[in-house]
Amino acid sequence: MCCWLFLILPASALTGWLIHWIAGNYFLNRYLPRQDAPLAAKAGQLTGRLMEQTFNMEEKISDPALIEKAMPSIEKHIDDFLNVKLKEEIPMLGMFIGNKTTDKIREVFINQLKVLFPQVMLQLAGQLKNELNPEQIVIRQLTQTPLSSLVKDDIAAKLRKYRNAGLLYGFIIGLVNLVLLYFIL
Fold first, then answer.
1. Residue 2 forms part of a structural domain
2. Dihedral, CA of residue 165, residue 167, residue 172 and residue 175, to nearest 10
3. pTM score of the predicted model
């Protein structure tokens, strides 16, 4: 058997390494950056669904328990308005309104607020949900900072192992070829 046949081993190993190097660079520099926009869109859709399922804003904001927690503060402001500010702003009205009248007005205000508050909060939550669209926020952020640039360093380390595996596979293929040639010749 000729000595030059032993060149099959390094040539096959180099070929395997080169093929894996070309495929890895293609993946890292061409294929992965092209996938940024579709991946950002899918991540945005997933985020939107998860946010809607997890943080059901409308339900939480219009919860009667939340309104009951807010009522002491609201009542305090209504009392301050009726007993102090109204009399300061319109002194003539203050002379005709007594405690019974302010208590009745306070009661009417509080009842109306208990009815109105959930509706207003639902409307605000809907507007806030449209303005703070998490799906669009995620897509915008991932478009500004592409996924390919975020994972490039991690993938580059794994691609070195991939190229070394190509070197090993090429060497094994060369060894198999050499054994086959030995038996044939």
1. no
2. -170
3. 0.54
**pLDDT tens per residue across all 185 residues of the chain:** 578 888 889 999 999 999 999 999 898 888 988 988 888 888 888 888 887 766 676 677 767 777 788 888 888 888 888 778 877 888 777 777 777 888 888 888 888 888 888 788 778 777 777 777 778 888 888 888 887 888 888 888 888 899 999 999 999 999 999 999 888 87
Q: Is 48 among the domain residues?
A: yes
Domains of the chain: total? 1
Q: Is residue 172 situated within a structural domain?
A: yes
- 58 within domain boundaries: yes
Residue 83 belongs to domain spanning: 9-184
Q: What does the DSSP assignment read for 69-98? A: HHHHHHHHHHHHIIIIIHHHH-HHHHHH--
